[in-house]
């Protein structure tokens, strides 16, 4: 979907014909030749190729950020695929290793290019991937100033939650709620939101909250949530689960519809 959007944007920007992978590889063959050659990681590879072209044509911090994320996803896929041994087709394994090395080189380039950035996403990546404390300081300053690139962006709210979870539970819950509030209809929020909320609520003995979000996690297809201990705690105080199941369904539906509101009252 994202590649299709980029193609449309590039076409509107003045390209005579919609951009295709074949066209990118013909015009800038280096964007394709140093990635894996087989069918593994096809979607991630396509997104990297298109975004490499976009960043090449318009090297903004936002385009570098999108390329960095695309390379990270591609590298996670191709690194796993590179471990698969081919007895008869050794070159496939070799091309996957090449794709992995290209990812490292390109991500390093982007980090070098954006050392002085003020882009919130890049600042988070500089801190979380490279332990750059100055980048974290800049990011927290943007949060303090209520910069809308931070406060009105679901991804950034989740990123901040991953920082505050180490020492401020209430702040983390606020940020995770805001992340869900900012989730648009048809989009899927980061699945790690739910187990984090469940863990925090269980820690603070808010078992109704913990159960509700454990059920939301299940409705979202998240399987690695242990709901049984929560059920035992609720049973011990004689709490019926039926009303909480209804609440969980309504909460899930509101998240999917993009109408979720922080449930501070339940």
From TrEMBL:
It comes from the Bacteria. It holds the Pfam family DUF2989. InterPro entries: DUF2989. This is DUF2989 domain-containing protein.
